[in-house]
């Protein structure tokens, strides 16, 4: 079912202050002095308010001068929201509606903010009441280091947003982050993925083909095309150009937050992560041959399996229904352990792909385009492991040829995807 958004106060939608008007001069109110004024917002809405409680007229006039200065310099804070109110608006309205975050990003942010941060804050606490010490305490009280790091990153984004929107006048997260570097891993060097060698990749593919046939083609595509797991499981046979040896990426499978349905909630078609994610990726002929074998298997399943779901996905269950991004999580870690390889995430295959291309003289602009990145600099900085050359070949096609999964005693065997009759009976 679709995500249910909490009701927010309408003032979040007013936008910035466009003008203001003072209502008369300084006036008395219950023995003290006050300043009355009306604010006008970009949305067309207006809001009348006052500042009161000044003991003398001189004090009130000085306050009015400060107020005018804040209004002119766009530093005035018209509304003071609670922490939860800001969380609700930022996550459910700004990030979902404007930034178009994915369902997985949403759940990740939700868990940090609503399960780790909010329980440590009193219900009516205003966001501008949180101080540096409060943020440090909140983060340190989180049990898991990885969640601590994630919390700091999310809170930095949120407070930066709140400052830009004039919900707060000061961002305490900046100083808190500096203080927390002593207890977090975020101050350490970036996580580097050391690529598997040619022999290790070949072994990985062969062991997968024999022991986890359903995972073989997804693994193969992710390795030789550098696709995200959500992209890999979304590739259809119609996306393959067998003549020019190209895989076209045009969709992901995941949870579409705009669709209200309880069926296949993790395998819905969703838009690519960015415009750059729409791309064509060259692959070698032997990989295309494997996809043709898989296509033959697919056609056979259509004939043998009752109620086969013919959606055209290359990576699918025996009944044609698509996988989701967590389908191979456990089997993948079991496979790497069986091969005696260092434990990595499926996403790390993208890092390996980028490193292989970089180490074989493929320019970074091409690597960046194949990965669906906007910037070659980002690709090289984040995705490429440059401390050692893993492959001894210099031509890209030779790299992929060298990882062809074959048994030592069956060098001339026809590459097929093993399956048994039990899988479709």
What does this molecule look like?
With 425 residues, this protein is α+β, with helices and mostly antiparallel strands. It is built from 15 helices and nine strands. It has helices at residues 57-72, 83-98, 103-117, 132-140, 145-164, 173-180, 198-211, 213-225, 229-232, 285-304, 329-338, 348-359, 364-371, 376-383, 396-402; strands at residues 17-22, 27-29, 32-41, 46-54, 240-241, 246-249, 252-254, 268-270, 279-282. The strands form three sheets. Strands 1, 2, 3 and 4 form a four-stranded antiparallel β-sheet that branches. A hairpin with a 4-residue loop joins β3 (32-41) and β4 (46-54). It is elongated. 27% of the residues are buried. Mean pLDDT is 82; it is low at 375-395 and 408-425.
Category from helices, strands and their pairing: alpha+beta
Shape call: elongated
Percent helix range: 40-55%
Count of individual helical segments: 15
Order of helices and strands: EEEEHHHHHHHHHEEEEEHHHHHH
Average pLDDT over all residues: 82
Q: Strand content of the residues, in percent?
A: 5-15%
Alpha-carbon distance between the two ends: 33 Å
Q: What Rg do the Cα atoms give?
A: 28 Å
Oligomeric category: single chain
**Poorly predicted segments:** 375-395, 408-425
Number of strands: 9
Largest sheet entry: 4 strands, antiparallel
């Amino acid at each position: 079912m679709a995500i249910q958004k909490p009701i927010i106060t309408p003032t979040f939608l007013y936008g910035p202050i466009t003008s203001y008007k003072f209502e008369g001069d300084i006036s008395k109110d219950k023995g003290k002095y006050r300043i009355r004024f009306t604010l006008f917002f970009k949305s067309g809405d207006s809001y009348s308010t006052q500042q009161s409680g000044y003991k003398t007229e001189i004090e009130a006039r000085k306050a009015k001068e400060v107020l005018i200065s804040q209004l002119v310099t766009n530093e005035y804070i018209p509304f003071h929201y609670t922490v939860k109110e800001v969380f609700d608006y930022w996550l459910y309205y700004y990030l979902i509606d404007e930034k178009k975050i994915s369902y997985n990003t949403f759940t990740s942010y939700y868990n940090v903010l609503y399960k780790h941060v909010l329980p440590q804050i009193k219900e009516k606490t205003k966001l501008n009441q949180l101080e540096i010490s409060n943020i440090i305490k909140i983060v340190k009280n989180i049990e898991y280091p990885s969640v601590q790091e994630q919390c700091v990153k999310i809170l930095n984004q949120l407070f930066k947003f709140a400052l830009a929107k004039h919900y707060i006048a000061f961002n305490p997260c900046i100083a808190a982050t500096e203080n927390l570097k002593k207890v977090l891993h975020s101050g350490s060097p970036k996580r580097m993925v050391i690529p598997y060698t040619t022999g290790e990749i070949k072994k990985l593919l062969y062991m997968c083909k024999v022991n986890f046939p359903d995972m073989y083609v997804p693994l193969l595509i992710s390795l030789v095309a550098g696709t995200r797991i959500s992209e890999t499981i979304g590739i259809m046979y119609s996306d393959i150009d067998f003549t020019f040896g190209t895989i076209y990426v045009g969709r992901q499978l995941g949870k579409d937050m705009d669709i209200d349905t309880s069926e296949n909630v993790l395998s819905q078609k969703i838009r690519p992560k960015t415009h750059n994610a729409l791309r064509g990726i060259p692959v070698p002929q032997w990989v295309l041959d494997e996809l043709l074998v898989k296509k033959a298997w697919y056609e056979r399943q259509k004939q043998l399996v009752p109620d086969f779901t013919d959606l055209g996905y290359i990576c699918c269950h025996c009944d044609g229904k698509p996988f989701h991004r967590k389908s191979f999580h456990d089997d993948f870690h079991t496979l790497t352990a069986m091969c005696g390889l260092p434990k990595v995430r499926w996403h790390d295959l993208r890092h390996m792909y980028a490193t292989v291309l970089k180490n074989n003289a493929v320019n970074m602009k091409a690597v960046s385009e194949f990965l669906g990145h906007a910037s070659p600099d980002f690709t090289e900085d984040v995705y490429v492991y440059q401390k050692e050359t893993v492959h001894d070949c210099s031509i890209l096609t030779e790299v992929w040829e060298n990882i062809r999964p074959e048994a030592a005693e069956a060098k001339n065997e026809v590459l097929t995807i093993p399956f048994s009759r039990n899988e479709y009976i």
